[in-house]
Every structure is written in structure tokens, then in C-alpha cells.
Amino acid sequence: MSLLTAFEAPVCVVLVGASGGIGRAVLDCLLNDTQVSRVYTLSRTRPADAEALQARHGDRLRLGQIDLTDEASIAAAARQLSDESPQLVLTTTGMLHTEDQQPEKSWRALTPDYFHQQMQINALGPALLAKHLIPLLPKDRRALFAALSARVGSIGDNRLGGWYSYRASKAALNMLLRCTAIEAKRRWPQLVVAGLHPGTVDTPLSQPFQARVPEGKLFTPTFAAESLLRVLDGLTPEQSGQVFAWDGQRIEP
């Protein structure tokens, strides 16, 4: 079974954030995909069962470390991949809250440190990944760079306000992806750059906010991972620079 049928097999994938809830589910999907020849994972922390994973999948899985707040770390990871030609780069990293700070309900709760941290991880980090990893993608066939965004990053869809830093960081990410798509098209005509909204997924990131999720709208990580990979597989270069939800629907800017 494969969720990546639109790619030219065998498919080499770079997955950033494999130790998170959605990222780990994506990793499992990729390792079970008959089209995928190798997965390079880049995470700040290694998966808890890294040794067992490596023993089970051997050379088909490469585990690496990266710090999205440090461009030198991103550049070093890219150099390690310089002999490869990945067709898909997917980053599933993201930050919504910390132990000390919840999303702001009012402008009165805004703090520079929290705002800058959200921007660093949710917007600048993926943009720097694009800067260093898109040059590794093939120019003569289908390739894709995608990052997890969120519906709350849509300015047109914002009717509730609040969550200032998170909304702003995801809106910034969407703009950065759009700019990247426009520039990359000149040299990578078959490249798709996309943002992805996974819905509300049952992970530590969403746990404090799950009580208000409508019935049937709290997704398992596996459902989210499979849905996102199906969406990615169906995107075309004409859709590059846009943001899509887990069900394939385009999200307005």
C-alpha cells in the first residue's frame, strides 16, 4: 500500500519533527509505504524507541538531530543530505503553548519573549528549512516541500480573535511558504510548496483545548498523518504556495 502514488518511485523523504505526535504517526506511515525507499528524520530529540526503529528498518531509516532555532544546525543537517535527492520534505514541528504560557486571550497577555518564540519555531524555522533543503530537491520531476500550518493562521477566517502569537506565526508561515513557492518555481517547475492544516489532533499540543472540540473532530495522529499524506500526493504545481486542510480543502489566506 502507498499513499504517495504521484511520486516517481522509489521515494526518498526528509521528515522534520518525527518525535512529535503527528510527526511520529507520519513516520510510521512512511515506513509502511511500499513506494518509500528511505526516510531521513531530523528532530531535536530522538524518538523514544529509536534503537528499536533502527533495528527494525535498518538502512531504510536514518535518524538525525536538528535545532530549528539554530540556522547552523539546519545547514549542517542539509550538508549531511547533500548526496541524496529527496523528493519530499515535510516538517511537522510546531509550538502552541509552553508550561508557563498559554495562547493569549487578550492583547494584555502579549509578551515579547513568547511572541518571538512562536515566530522562531512556527515561521522562521520552516523558512530556514526551505532555504537549505529545497536546493536538494530534484528539478526534473515531482518534488514537494510542506510544513504544518493551521486554520487559525488565516486572516480571512479569523472571527474569534485571541491567540495572538500563534495566529501571527502561522500567518507569517503561510506568507513565507507563498514567497518560497513563487521564487522556487523558476528553477523547480514541478515543485509544490504547501502548508497543511491537520485539524485538531489528539497530541500534547492540543490537549489543553480538547474539551471544546466538536464530537468526531478530534483526530488520532494516525488519521491525521494518513490524511495529510493523501492531500500532499494529490497536489499539483498550480496549487503551490497555498494552504490545505486535512480533507483537501483550500484554506483562504
From TrEMBL:
- Signal peptide per UniProt: none
Q: Which Gene3D superfamilies match?
A: NAD(P)-binding Rossmann-like Domain
Q: Which domain of life does the protein's organism represent?
A: Bacteria
Q: Which CDD domains match?
A: carb_red_sniffer_like_SDR_c
What the entry lists under InterPro entries is as follows:
Fungal_SecMetab_SDRs, NAD(P)-bd_dom_sf, SDR_fam
Q: Which PANTHER family match?
A: NAD(P)-BINDING ROSSMANN-FOLD SUPERFAMILY PROTEIN, SHORT-CHAIN DEHYDROGENASE/REDUCTASE
From the Swiss-Prot or TrEMBL record, give the protein name: SDR family NAD(P)-dependent oxidoreductase
| Species assigned in the record | Marinobacterium alkalitolerans
